[in-house]
Amino acid sequence: MDTVAAEGLLSASWLVIALPLLGAAVLLLGGRRTDAWGHLLGTATVVAAFVLGLLCTVQLAGVEGHAVDAELFTFVSTGSLDVGAGLLVDPLSATFMLLITGVGSLIHVYSIGYMAHDPRRRRFFAYLNLFVAAMLLLVLGDNYVALYVGWEGVGLASYLLIAFWHDRPSAATAAKKAFVMNRVGDVGLALAIFVMFAQLGTVSYEGVFGGVGALAGGTLTALGLLLLLGACGKSGQFPLQAWLPDAMEGPTPVSALIHAATMVTAGVYLIARSAPIYDLTPTARGVVLAVGAITLLYGAIVGCAYDDIKKVLAYSTVSQIGYMFLAVGLGPVGYAAAIAHLLTHGFFKAGLFLGAGSVMHAMGDEVDMRRFGGLARRLPVTFVTFGLGYLALIGFPFLSGYWTKDAIIEAALDRGDWAGWLLGGVAVLGAGLTAFYMTRLMLMTFFGRPRWTEDQHPHESPSVMTAPMVVLAVGSVAAGFLLVQVFPLDTWLEPVFGVPEEAEHVVAPALVGLVVTAVMALGVLAAWLFVGRREVPEVAPARVSPVVRAARRALYADTVNESLFMRPGQWLTRALVWVDNRGVDGAVNGLAATLGGSSSRLGRAQTGFVRSYALGMLGGAVVVAGALLAVTAG
Amino acid sequence: MSDSLLLVAMVVVPAVGAAVVAGLPRERTPLARQVALGVSLVVLVLAVLATVAFDPDGDRFQLTSSVPWIPGFGVDFALGVDGIALVMLLLVGVLVPVVVLASWDDTPPARRSMRTFFAWLLLLEACMVGVFAATDVFLFYVFFEAMLVPMYFIVGSFGGPRRQYAAVKFFLYSLLGGLVMLAAVIGLYVVSASAGEGTFAFESLRQLDIDPDVQRLLFLGFFVAFAIKAPLVPLHTWLPDAGAEAPIGGAVLLVGVLDKVGTFGFLRYCLPLFPDASRDFAPLVLVLAVAGVLYAALLAMGQNDMKRLVSYTSIAHFGFIALGVFAFTTEAATGAVLYMVNHGIATGLLFLVVGMLIARGGSRLVGDYGGVASRAPKLAGVFLVAGLASLALPGTNSFVSEFLVLIGSFPTRPVFTVLATVGIILAALYVLLLYQRTMHGPPRGVLFPADPATADPATADPATADPATADTSAAGEPAPAGGHGATAASATATGTGTATGTATATGTATLTEAPPARTTTLLHDLTRRETVVVAPLVALILVLGFYPQPLVRLIEPAVAATMSDVGADPAGTTPATTEGTDR
Fold first, then answer.
1. In 10 A of CB A117, how many CB atoms?
2. Which three-class secondary structure state does DSSP give residue B221?
3. Distance of CA B526 to the CA centre of its chain
4. Where are the domains of chain B?
5. Is the C-alpha dihedral spanning A440, A442, A445, A447 positive or negative?
């Protein structure tokens, strides 16, 4: 990786982070004085960051090597450790910068309408700005410590926003769960950084990637697995996926921006950024593949069973990020495909969430799809934009998801071995399930007989909300074609990932496209047969097969977590509190009492200072004498 | 040169101030606290001046001054600072005015006067400056012991319901440690006398070549005293009692500064004077340190008394500091020193804000609070900042120090480091559990007497009025309720219930029968004075979180010198690239 020092506009790239951070600071410190215009400032800083990011990216395209490093100041330097606060603008980070600020701007605009009646709207925008700043630091930092600071920073923003309506106990619990499960992953990331420092003496991307070639295979595998643990936590991948669906307790714009389009894809960024490490460890890459494949199926299966519109979309996110993990796990052939899917997913999933928010807005915050139905005519803009996002997600031919998902499936099949067939098969099956649960969602929400009461008065959202939905819908339609055919993303990212070898296709791409489309059509058909053709019961049927029952409980993921970690942890804590009070303290108190001659003396309030002092002095004198003797004798 | 008088002034000014305050008539308490604030601010200015005068690349000890004190035994009244002592003096300088201001409107227990409290506080400050600035081992010992007396009275006279028990326990523990250390101090003198001239001067003692067996004994003498002071498991049980019963100001200084004398002592005395013994005992110390990180974190989770909880978190943090000191790398030890400063700021703030909550509700029990954030957002915000600093979130000062400790310890002690790193998950749990139980949820508890424990969610937020969400929240929330019941039960079972006499009057049992006539809430957000108290600490947490290098620059040379004393490479760890395998 050859970088050049930042010049011109690029040397001001720190402003991209500073602007939203400034917005957050003003809104948080300014207090109620900023209530009137806080949301406008919050939106303006992110839009400005987007414009600046766009200009930076244009300039970057003209720089030789396409990688620019802007060193800001020494963060901490002691002994042989030297951590700088520096930014790396290269095609990968620039792509993320545009995604974050672009989708971020749209969602800020949408939130002006969505949060209009919330008395704490200013605070909401402050947290949202804080998130954008931290996420930008995560992707723009030029070393692993800067990434880690942003990494936990977005975790904080996520915590604050999930718990935004914090007097709901469920929201407060979900926020804590998200933070703690993320911290489990963070331990992996932290340990990976420690290993880098111990083995290579540096934590900068440049230093680490320059030195990994000299590391032993075991070390590389360990690094890959530790980074993967961090990625799983942040991206809601198996086995750390359980927090993400609960995170839907946050306001819907948060779900769109943080828990669909940007933050949860940080794990994909981490693995893609660490490509020079993963390129050298097929073992760790194999585990990434397994995690991706398991998660994509898991999310798709569970998504079929939920009735909460946001939870279905959340499990869909879990599943789609599984596709991205699968892609990065494939190595050089998959990195660009993963990032492309990440971008298109950012468009259509953010759009879907905003659409879901619009539905909830119309239905008085109802999320149960069994209470929806027939909303297509009442919410025409929402229906059309949501519908386009739906088609993009299920991979309808020539919309965004079709291009980027097919690329992943092709790359998996191109491995040519049994694993390639297995992974490709899983991905195709996942596509069918995706078509099923998303069609089910569409049918239950927008079609069929209305199952809401007349006093709910569903109405279309104001244009400040629908405009961002329209923009994202356009992206959902066109982004895939643009990124694959018009401005090929893999060419743009070549300076980062290198030029992958031209793969020999095991199966002709056209045939893959055909098969995937056929499976998708089967999924749609199945959904129509099971859901669309029949009356949707307003209460979920209780007599269902064990498979459905398991899927409704997310395949018992929470049960496992609770019985393996939470309960034993509570028992252990309770036992230790007892031990510490009775055992350790008792033993020491007992010892003191024995020395003092009476066990009540210590506890009794009347025990005088002077008396204790005298007692202590006596004991001390004995010890002094003993020690002196010992020293002289020794 | 006047610089050399700076440290003397930092000892003398608060000591004189203490005498002045103590001499004021009883009814002049308002004047007493003004004098105390003024004196403590003067000390802060002196500490800043000392920092300006200090040259990080200069001699190991600077701003030195020395006069013979007990010439017969070679005892000098010798003061001087290295970078480590200097940053501790800065911490003292910052925290004491904050504590004075935080205790501004406290009501003393019957027959006590706040004037006396402020006098003890200033005397304590003089002793704290002395203990960090002493370069004569005997003088250090004198300050080390003298420090106990004001703290004993601060806890014993101005503390909570069980203050006597806590104060005596604190005193006995510390005294026991101090006396063992006295033996070692005398032992040091004997060794120096047998090697030539008897002395207590640190620099001369450091150059002694002490027989390894003698080193071991002397090391243990110092170590026990320090391990009690900065309590390492299993010598920690006095701290939760003292921390819980001390008045908030006392608790801040006890945990924020006094306990750091222990970890400071490890670095200043144990390592340079007894390098062989330090290396021999390092594995044992590391076991205690890492055990403390995990054990105290688990215990913190099980506490229902907020002040005890914060005390236990500190024990976990001292484990990190001890790990950093005994990993014998420049990176880790620099992190450990930075940790001492940062922990004083972060935990100081946490204690202060917990104290503000207790001042409003009259109870120390977590279970007596709930939903505070919806009525007092500023208080909740500061609480969160303090909590996040306590769990070492990046962007807060504590992250830098914890990260340095861990990354610096990993190359030499990978296994211990991995275990300690697991502690960061536990830290997230104890902080966020506390925060959720007190700040989140519907308003309930002692601060909302009008709201029954089963508060009507419709009054709190229109969003929660939705029956569907209310249902899911009831179903999705078995864990904290169970956990809360468990901690409450264990707290009663272990006798801490008696320690919270103030709480029983307003316990939840009576709460549900509270007359609905009282519609006003007891809860008000931060007052102007409280804002002034917390603002400097919040600012320091953030500034040192993003720009710690100036402090690191002060600390590192002294740490590097200590590392070379103990035989480690002062330039830091060498990467293992060439070896190519995991160690």
1. 8
2. helix
3. 23
4. 3-441+526-581, 448-519
5. negative
Average per-residue pLDDT for chain A: 87
Determine the distance from the C-alpha atom of residue B470 to the mean position of all C-alpha atoms in its chain, rounded to a whole number: 41
Q: The tokens of A571 are what?
A: 């028992």
Cis peptide before A239 (omega within 30 of 0): yes
Whether the CB-CB separation of B372 and B357 falls below 8 Å is answered with yes
Q: How confident is the model at residue A9 (pLDDT cuts 50, 70, 90)?
A: confident
A626 touches chain B (CB under 8 A): yes
Which residue among B178, B464, B576 places its CB closest to the CB of A198? Answer: B576
What pLDDT is stored for residue A372 in this prediction? 87
Q: Which element (helix H / strand E) includes A82?
A: strand A81-89
> In this structure, are strands B75-81 and B62-70 parallel, antiparallel, or unpaired?
antiparallel
Contacts of A79 in chain B (CB under 8 A): 329-331, 334, 408, 556, 560, 570-573
Domain ranges of chain A: 284-552, 560-633
Residue B577: pLDDT band with limits 50, 70, 90: low
pLDDT tens readout for residues B329-348: 999 999 999 999 999 999 99
The residue behind tokens 């697991």 is B422
**Helix pair angle (B83-102, B528-546), 10° resolution:** 160
Cα distances from A500 to residues A4, A16, A292, A495, in angstroms, run 24, 32, 21, 11
Prior bond of B234 cis (ω within 30°): yes
Token pair belonging to A82: 């030297």
Nearest to A81 among B169, B393, B407 (CB): B407
Beta strand A68-78 pairing with A4-5? parallel
With left for phi above 0 and alpha for psi between -120 and 50, is residue A484 left, alpha or beta? alpha
How many residues can be counted in chain B? Answer: 583
| Residues β-bridged to residue B65 | B79
**What CA–CA distance (Å, rounded) separates A201 from B552?**
19
> Could you tell me the sign of the dihedral formed by the alpha carbons of B130, B135, B136, B137, in that order?
positive
User: Which structure tokens are listed for A25?
Assistant: 């600071």
Question: For residue B80, what is the DSSP state?
Answer: E
Could you give the CA distance from residue A528 to residue A448 in angstroms, rounded to a whole number?
Answer: 11
Which of B185, B143, B176, B236 is CA-nearest to residue A613? B176
Closest in B374, B411, B486 to A570, CB measured: B486
Substitution target in A35, A249, A573, A611 with the highest count of B β-carbons within 10 Å is: A573
Strand pairing report for A81-89 and B75-81: unpaired
Q: Residue A368 carries which DSSP code? A: B
Tokens 């939903």 -> residue: B371
Range B517-523 contact pairs with CB under 8 angstroms and sequence separation of 24 or more: B518/B449, B518/B450, B519/B450, B520/B450, B521/B375, B521/B443, B521/B447, B521/B448, B521/B449, B521/B450, B522/B360, B522/B361, B522/B446, B522/B447, B522/B448, B522/B449, B523/B360, B523/B361, B523/B372, B523/B375, B523/B376, B523/B447, B523/B448
Q: Do B299 and A580 touch (CB under 8 A)?
A: yes
The CA distance from A313 to A323, in Å, is 15
Cα separation, A490 vs A268, in Å, equals 16
Task: Report pLDDT digits (tens) over A497-542.
Answer: 888 777 778 788 888 889 999 999 999 999 888 887 888 787 788 7
User: Between B455 and A228, where is the model more confident?
Assistant: A228
- Can you spell out the DSSP letters for A568-622? HHHHHHHHHHHIIIIIIHHHHHHHHHHHHS-HHHHH-TT--HHHHHHHHHHHHHH
